[in-house]
Amino acid sequence: MNKNIIVQFVGFESNSKAREYTFTVKEPSTEPRGYILTIPHEAFNAHRVSYQDAPDVCSLKLHRELAAANSNQLEDTRLQITDADIEDYRAAHSPRPRPRFGHKPVHEF
Q1: Number of domains into which the chain is organized
Q2: For 28, which of 60, 95, 102, 108 is 20 to 30 Å away at the CA?
Q3: How far is CA 2 from CA 9, 19, 20, 27, 56, in A?
Q4: 1 occurs within a structural domain
């Protein structure tokens, strides 16, 4: 993927089945191209993804798809967010557990 591209979140619309997140991909040598990534309402209702995280989940998927295509353009301009995409986002953004080396000694005075 070209490092000179800009992936910009434009907004979202909600319909009866899903939320559709719109992004524009821009690069100096070509016209901007629009992409729509869809997250089913069920994913929000089941608390698998939050409304606040949804644009980031979509952005991560779009960046990965562009990188995998070795291009700044994908043939399909509409992408579906899957449970696997949500899990990938969670894994990348969950706090790492701190190692526990035992209890700190308690000093009595």
Answers
A1: 1
A2: 60
A3: 18, 28, 25, 8, 20
A4: no
Element (H, E) at 31: strand 30-40
Does any domain span residue 105? Answer: no
Mean pLDDT of 29-44: 94
- pLDDT tens sequence across 39-85: 999 999 999 999 999 999 999 999 999 888 876 678 889 999 999 99
Which domain range does residue 43 map to? 6-93
Residue 85, classified by CB atoms within 10 Å of its CB into exposed (0-12), middle (13-18) or buried (19+), is buried
DSSP type of residue 97: P
Q: Is 1 helix (H, G, I), strand (E, B) or coil?
A: coil
pTM score: 0.81
| Distance, CA of 11 to CA of 62 (rounded, Å) | 15
Residue 66 lies in a domain: yes
Residue 36 lies in a domain: yes
Helix (H, G, I), strand (E, B) or coil at 105: coil
d(Cα 61, Cα 7) in Å, to the nearest integer? 12
